Amino acid sequence: MTAPVKGPVKGNAPSRRAFLRGTIAAGGALAGATMARAQATPDPLITEVQDWASGLGDGVDATPYGLPIEFESDVIRRNVEWLTADTISSINFTPIHALDGTITPTGCAFERHHSGAIELRKEDYRLMINGMVDQETIFTYEDLERFPRENHTYFLECAANTGMEWAGAQLNGAQFTHGMIHNMEYSGIPLRTLLEEAGLDTAGDLKDKWVYVEGADASSNGRSIPMEKALDDCLIAIKANGEALRKEHGYPVRLVVPGWEGNMWVKWIRRIEVMDGPVESREETSKYTDTLDNGISRKWTWVMDAKSVVTSPSPQMPITHGHGPLVITGMAWSGRGAITRVDVSKDGGMTWETARLAQPGEDKALTRFYLETEWNGEEMFLQSRAMDSTGYVQPTKNMLREVRGENSIYHNNCIQTWWVKPNGEAENVEVS
Amino acid sequence: MSKFRNLLIGTTLVTLAASPVMAEKLGLGRAALPEEVAAWNLDVSPDGTGLPEGSGSVLDGEEVFADNCAICHGDFAEGVDNWPKLAGGMDTLNHKDPLKTVGSYWPYLSTAFDYVHRSMPFGSAQTMSADDTYAIVAYILYSNDLVDEDFVLSKDNFLEVEMPNADGFIVDDREEAEKHFWTEPCMENCKPEPVKITMKAAVLDVTPDEED
C-alpha cells in the first residue's frame, strides 16, 4: 500500500493543522522547560510489544533496487503546472525542504527537458568531435570507459531557479522557489582529454576558440562554451552518485560544466564541435539571456553566483515540535568557487549571526549549514546569506532589482525571507 | 581534494591523487566519415556558416507553417496557450513583462533557421527540408512585419535581413556592474528600523495544490 501524498505545501493541509494544534497544546504544558518532558502514563510504544518487535520484516530482494520507505512518499519531485505548456518541455523541483546533507538523492533530483527524456542505449550511443580538430573522431560508450576518469562533486542549478520570484514573493515552499538544483558526485572523463585525443593543433590559438555542444534528443539543446572553460574543468560524465546516469539526467552520457548554468550541462551529449565563434543558438539568445530594466539584455551570463536558502524551517517544513531547541538548516553554493561562510538572520536582515558549515565549502558544490538555536514562539523573518571564496556576498532582492530591474527571469540569487509565525508555520514573504 | 593533495605533497602518492596525466593519445575512437559529420553538423552561425542551399517564400511558408507549426504557435505565429509566441512584442523589452519573439528579441536570423531545421516541429524534429525551413523562417519574418508578402528568403539574401534587436545585447558585465556585491557584509543594525512585510506569497496563492 502506498501512503497518500499530502505534503503541507499550501499551509492549509488539514492533517498538518491538526498535528500542529496537538503539538502546540502539548508544548504549552512545558512552557519554559529545559528538561525532558514529563510523561503521565507509560508510552504503549514502549510498554506493549509491537508487531515489528515480534514478527518478521521483508526478506532481502523484496526490492532489488530500493525506493524510500512509504512514510517518505511525499519527498518527491513536483512540478508547477502553470509554468509551462506541457510536461515534455518542462521542469520540476527537487524536494530540498526535506533533504539534508549535500548529495541529492538521484531519484528526486529535479528534471528539465526540452523534448522529453529519451531512451538511448549505451550500444547506440555515439559521441562525435568535429570542426577545427586534427582528426574528426567518433567515440562509442566503450571507448569512453577506456579513458582515465575523475570523480568530482558539483551542483547543477538551472538559471531560472527562483526566476518566478523577481516581481514578488510567489511560490510558497523552498522546493518551488529554490528546487531547480541538485548536487551529485560525477565520474567522468575531462573534456580536455577527449579534445586532445582528437587533436587541437588545427585550431591554432585556443584563446578565441569555442566548442559547440549538442544532445541526441530532438531539442539538441545546443550551447556554445569558450574553449578556456572546456579545457578547464568540464567533464563528460558517465556516472552520477556512483551509478549510471538516470534517463532523466542524460543516460548514458552528459556534459558537466561546473559552476555554470544547468542548461549548458547538455544531456545525451552527442557532438562537440570546435569552432572559431559561438553559434548563438536558441538556448543562448532567445533563452538564458537576462533582460535589464532598459530593455538591453545580458548574454553569456554563464556563472551561477553565490546563493543560499534556509530549507527548514520553511513553508513546507513548519516548526511542529513546540518551544525550545530548534535546528535551522539550509544549503549554500557558488559557481565562482567554494562557500566560505553563511550568515543567518532571524529579523529580516537587521542582525546576522554566522552559521556552522557542516563541512568546509567545496569548489562549485553544495554546502550544508546549521544554526542551532532556541525558539519560544517569537515571530521570525528568517534569511540566509552566502559568501564565497572570491568575497562575493549574496545580495538582497532589492539590490538585484536596483541593477537589473524585474524582467531578468534568470540568475535570481537573492536572499530569501521566510516569515515564521508564532504557531510555527512559515510563509514566503518580502520585507522592507 | 586540495586538503588531500597537501597531505600527500612530497610523497610518491601525489601523482596518484592528482588528476590522471595523459602522456600521449590513447588511440581510442575512430575517424568520423564525411557522411557522418554531414548528417550531424547542421548548426548555422550568425555569419551564415552552415546554411544549406535552398530558398522559400512567405506564401509557401504560410502553408508549411499552417500544417506544421500553427497548432502550437497559432496561424499568425501569435502563440496558442502557453506555447511560444513567435511574432509581436515590438518595443516592449523595457516594459514590465516584455514580449520576446523572433521579431522583438532574437538578435540573429541564423538562430531561427538553425532551431527550426534542427529541433522543430515539436515531436517531429529534423523532418523539415531546407526549402521548407527557409519558407517557415520567411513566414515568421512576415508575421513580424519585417518583410513583405512577396519576399523569398534564400541562402543568398539571408544576411541582408535586419533583426530589430540585433544590438540589444551586452556581454555579461556582472563583475563590473555588480562589483558592490563583493563586500564586507553588515552584521548588526543593518536596517534603519525593524522590517515590515511588503509582500506575501499567500496573497498571490499560486502555489500548486498537492491534492490534485
TrEMBL record, chain A:
GO molecular function: heme binding; molybdenum ion binding; molybdopterin cofactor binding; sulfite dehydrogenase activity; sulfite oxidase activity
Cofactors: Mo-molybdopterin
Moybdenum cofactor oxidoreductase dimerisation domain mapped to chain residues: 298-416
Pfam families for this protein: Mo-co_dimer (PF03404), Oxidored_molyb (PF00174)
InterPro entries: Ig_E-set, MoCF_OxRdtse_dimer, Mopterin_OxRdtase_euk, OxRdtase_Mopterin-bd_dom, OxRdtase_Mopterin-bd_sf, Sulfite_DH_SoxC, TAT_signal
EC number(s) recorded for this UniProt protein: 1.8.2.1
Top-level division of the source organism's lineage: Bacteria
GO BP: sulfur compound metabolic process
Keyword vocabulary terms for this entry: Metal-binding, Molybdenum, Oxidoreductase
NCBIfam families: sulfite_DH_soxC (TIGR04555)
This protein's name: Sulfite dehydrogenase
Phylogenetic classification of the source organism: Bacteria, Pseudomonadati, Pseudomonadota, Alphaproteobacteria, Rhodobacterales
Gene giving rise to this polypeptide: soxC
